[in-house]
Each structure stands twice: as C-alpha cells, then as structure tokens.
Amino acid sequence: MGSAACVTRSLRTLLRVLQSTQQESRILGFGHCRSIGWRRNDLLCSTKLPSLTLTAALHTGSPCCAIPPAIRVTEEPDTLYQSVAVLVKGHDRAVLDSYEFFATLAAQELGITIGKVYEPSKKIERFTLLKSVHIFKNHRVQYEIRTHYRYIELKHLTGSTADVYLEYIQRNLPEGVAMDVTKTAIEKLPDHIKEPLWSSLSMQEKPSL
After folding, report:
1. Which residue ranges run through the membrane (predicted)?
2. What is the C-alpha to C-alpha distance for residues 119 and 96, in angstroms, rounded to an integer?
3. Is residue 47 included in any domain, yes or no?
4. Which domain holds residue 172?
5. Which of 119, 105, 99 is closest to 175 using CA atoms?
6. pLDDT at 155
7. What is the CATH number of the domain that holds 169?
8. How many domains, the chain?
9. Sites in the chain below the pLDDT cut of 70
10. Tens of pLDDT along 138-189?
C-alpha cells in the first residue's frame, strides 16, 4: 500500500509540473506576440511559427545510377536456319506431353513456324538379373526401362530468334528429361564454286591461233 501511495503522489506532482509548464509557455508566447506588435505596427501579432507538415515522398523517377544498355550494331549478318529440330527424351510420358504443349505454345507466341510434331517409337531395354546374388540361381527378376521421345521441328528461323527460344525452353526443361538440338543452317555459296570449273579449263585448253 505504501508503494502504491508513493507512485500516485509522484504521478500527481508530475502532472502539476506539466500543467505549469504549459501555462508558462502560453504566457510567454502571448507576451512575445505583444512585444512584436509594439515594435512593428504593420505586423500586430501576425508572426507565426512555420507549420511542419508531414508529406509522403513517392519517388517515381528513374534512378540516377541507371545506365541504359548499349545496343551493339554489327555489320555481320544474322545466321539463317532452315530448320531447328528439338528432340527430348525421358521416362515419364505425361511429363513429355506437358513439355510438348509448353514448347509448341512458346513457339506460337514468338511467331515461329512449326513443322513436324510427333512421337517417335519408344525404346525398351530389359535386364534379367538374379533375384538373389548368392543363392537360388533359378529365381530371376526382370527390369524394364522405357524411354519415350518427342520430336519438334521448327522452320525458317534467324539466329537470334533460335537462341532466345532454345534458351527459354532449356531453362524450363523438367528434371529427368534430356534434349538434343539439330540445326540446319543456310550458308552462302563459296566463291570458288560459283562458276563451274570446266569453263575455266576449257578456256585454258583452247589452242592458240
């Protein structure tokens, strides 16, 4: 009980001190206003302290340290592919069905011409082993491994489009699925075979008159 009474007394004294300080601040502020009014007749008690307002700063501009990526313009022509064949293989047929749908949908979104899409024949490997390593050699067990395939052929691609598409589908390749890519590029005809060799030979073998 004694400690509670001491706490209440201290709280009361603290409250009185706070009230007295508030009254003194009000009186001092009014006197200051009157003194300013006597000194400057044109500003009678019109001096006010600057009001502080809290505003939320929303940064909408671009960061100052952001550097726009440099675009490289090269004179080297882009590689042209007549066809790009994507062969994926795995042991789960449902996973390959889902991945085939994903790969063809991505090609359609990129505007790539899709050629053949089919399922080659599956490969089956069987292993006959002993059921027990040491005894009962007449008891055997057979294991079977089935490998399913999907073949997707894309036609008439540029090198940049092929690189972007292949990187995208390879990053989303499921676990346990392998991929084999075959590219058929369109090359420029070399200069040494543009003209037939027999024309030059015939000119050399002509008898001089």
Report:
1. none
2. 10
3. no
4. 86-187
5. 99
6. 94
7. 3.30.70.600
8. 1
9. 1-11, 14-15, 17-66, 68-71, 73-74, 195-209
10. 788 889 999 999 999 999 999 999 999 999 999 999 999 999 999 999 988 8
